[in-house]
From TrEMBL:
One of its GO terms (molecular function) is ATP hydrolysis activity. It comes from Alteribacter keqinensis. Coiled coil: none annotated. The keyword Cell cycle does not apply. It comes from the Bacteria. The lineage of its organism: Bacteria, Bacillati, Bacillota, Bacilli, Bacillales. GO terms for biological process: amino acid transport. The keyword Hydrolase does not apply. This is ATP-binding cassette domain-containing protein.
Amino acid sequence: MIQLHHVNKRFEQFEAIKDVSLTIDKGEIYGIIGASGAGKSTLLRLINLLEVPDSGAVEVNGRDLTKLRGKKLRDARKSIGMIFQGFNLVANKTVYENIAVSLELSNYPRKERRSRVEECLRFVGLEDFMKKYPAQLSGGQKQRVAIARALANKPEFLLCDEPTSSLDPNTTAEVLKVLEDVNKRLGVTIVIVSHEMDVIKSLCTQVTVMANGEVYETVRTKPKGIQHIDNNPKYFVDQLAKDGEVDRA
Ligand SMILES: Nc1ncnc2c1ncn2[C@@H]1O[C@H](COP(=O)(O)OP(=O)(O)OP(=O)(O)O)[C@@H](O)[C@H]1O
């Protein structure tokens, strides 16, 4: 379980995140949506302390990450994988090496690294791509490699920052299917930031709408048939309420 308690984050004078508290239960696919600049990515990055909060607590399975330093923080972070809109693969390394590097950094037992890389690539359907370089892959394949890399250390949580925003609709569907498998078959809790309502609609079990650095509302829903997007946060909630059964959290 992930819990944020009264978290605040400023960039100089600008208050990017204001007193945000939320709970993400094990097994959820938790969406964070909202207009551009609402604070979605910052909120996601606070969960693994890529952004350090100015105040408040970030608890992962009951441990406050803001109190951990050095090896203890690195170990805690192993339970949290992350993928990005731009994939963040290393261009001059092969698919195999991109994944193996994360096992090296975490001191994964040397003899088991190869089979773990193979296992992760099989999971995302790219076992035949080990020797390719990122430039030889499509956008969807790059994101699947990034997912395999994020899974390598067997995380409990996967943070996804706009994972399909640079992909076309078909490739988006392919990546969403992999993320759904990660949740259903591996039991990984997923937190996904997206401005695409279709992504939220097809995947999420709970959704937080952000506006101006604050939680506007959190709803549990299985929305259907959402077509448009609007910058008014009330719009997101109204759409979710209209298209599915919404329990206000
Ligand atoms: N490192 C930083 N330094 C200064 N300001 C920042 C930094 N990171 C984010 N911000 C500001 O904080 C606000 C929230 O940014 P954030 O990226 O979290 O928004 P977002 O909702 O993810 O937006 P988008 O959908 O456009 O990516 C924005 O106004 C942004 O300019």
